[in-house]
From TrEMBL:
Keyword Transmembrane applies: yes
Boundaries of every ABC3 transporter permease C-terminal domain copy: 285-396
Originating species: Piscinibacterium candidicorallinum
Domain called MacB-like periplasmic core: residue spans: 21-242
Protein name as it appears in the record: ABC transporter permease
């Protein structure tokens, strides 16, 4: 028999018991849908993390005051003064392994313009922060060196704040109040999106670091540094160099705890990848269990089918069919059930991914590799669980089969 004839015969045999065939395929459908969703979730989480990290900038390092804990966190002793200064950041800028390091201040403050007011993040920055963190000015100008030296009351506002407070008017030159103190708007940031220290760049106000509303307990101390390594290969070396410089400047002797913590944003990526992997494993186990259950169901139904069709097998062999022909026929029926079930499962997974993407909160995309994997999985299940019933059918003796009623 040709391949086409085998398929036609397989579909004919399966369509003779449509309800039984559909119920048998249900386990395969659920299993393949779970496997495809597993692959999609894993890839989507990784892409989401890559997208978020690219918004932060590549090869970024964060330095915060405090003592590192075993779980990767930071603790501060009661009454301990902040350990990072603007001069520390200047010292880090001399390292050959760094593109640059900038000091930052951060606080949540009330802002108002006219009768409108809200609370938002206010960052104290230096001019170099825009290039280092890939932030661009849409209109006006950024914070200048003279603004920092003179502690000028100027501000660069995010695009969402510009739209909310200065709808259809040019905000440049207007006064906006931060904690009831007037600041002149000199620029508007371009773009939106989250960062490690703000929820949305569009909702941020930036002022000179020397004019930030928060008054630190010690002069010229700051909340944290943001640094960028020359390249990915020198990231670890840059982290070690930074630690050496800060230990020297803070007079930390060997054996004493550091009063700062350096965080590599690549560790965030690894943590996110671990989460994606855990999700994939969880869904994969569900899919594997469903596939095994579905495969056992297929084996059971195929054994029933062999018992029901003993006389048919005997007639086929009596008129010239060889054992391998019978084996191929029954194996084809098992594979067809699995492949059709896999196709339906893939469509269900695609629908689920589209529904998640439609919420706008998370993008899930099914790639060609996911579909290929589904086809291979379903085919493998059909071959594995269909082989025993097919082999059993091929080993029946024609004379014994013809004696059956």
């Amino acid at each position: 028999m040709s391949f086409a004839q085998i398929l036609v015969e397989a579909f004919r045999s399966l369509s003779a018991n449509r309800l039984r065939t559909a119920l048998t395929m249900l386990g395969i459908i659920i299993g393949i849908a779970s496997v495809v969703l597993m692959l999609s979730v894993g890839d989507s989480v990784r892409k989401f993390i890559d997208k978020e990290l690219s918004a932060l900038g590549s090869n970024m390092l964060i330095v915060r005051p405090g003592t590192p804990t075993k779980d990767g966190g930071v603790r501060r002793r009661a009454g301990e003064a902040p350990a990072l200064t603007i001069e520390d950041a200047a010292a880090l800028n001399t390292l050959p392994t760094l593109k640059g390091a900038v000091p930052m201040m951060q606080g949540f403050h009330q802002i108002n313009y006219g009768t409108d007011n809200s609370n938002t993040t206010v960052l104290g920055v230096v001019p170099e922060v825009f290039a280092l963190r890939n932030w661009t000015i849409d209109s006006g100008a950024g914070i200048s060196e003279s603004d920092v030296r003179s502690a000028a009351r100027v501000a660069v506002i995010g695009s969402k704040i510009a739209s909310q407070y200065f709808y259809k008017t040019d905000p440049i030159g207007k006064l906006i109040r931060v904690d009831n103190q007037p600041y002149t708007v000199v620029g508007v940031m371009a773009g939106e999106g989250s960062a490690f220290d703000v929820n949305d760049i569009g909702d941020v106000i930036m002022v000179p670091i020397t004019r930030h509303p928060i008054r630190m307990p010690l002069p010229r101390t700051v909340h944290y540094f943001v640094a960028q390594a020359k390249d990915a290969a020198s990231l670890k070396e840059a982290q070690l160099d930074m630690a050496d410089v800060l230990r020297d400047r803070h007079r930390i002797t060997p054996g004493k705890e550091d009063n700062f913590v350096i965080t590599n944003l690549a560790s965030f990526a690894q943590a996110g990848a671990n989460i994606g992997f855990a999700l994939s494993i969880g869904l994969g186990l569900i899919g594997a269990i469903s596939l095994i259950v579905g495969g056992i169901g297929i084996m059971n139904i195929m054994l029933v089918s062999v018992s029901e069709r003993v006389r048919e097998i005997g007639i086929r062999m009596a008129i010239g069919a060889k054992p391998r022909h019978v084996l191929t026929q029954f194996l084809a029926e098992a594979v067809v059930m699995c492949v059709v079930g896999g196709a339906i499962g893939t469509l269900i997974a695609a629908g689920g991914a589209a529904a998640v993407t439609a919420t706008g909160k998370f993008d899930m995309v099914l790639g060609v590799s996911h579909v290929v994997t589904a086809v291979l999985f379903s085919t493998a299940v059909g071959l594995f669980f269909g082989f025993y019933p097919a082999r059993r059918a091929s080993r029946l003796l024609p004379i014994e089969c013809l004696r059956q009623d």
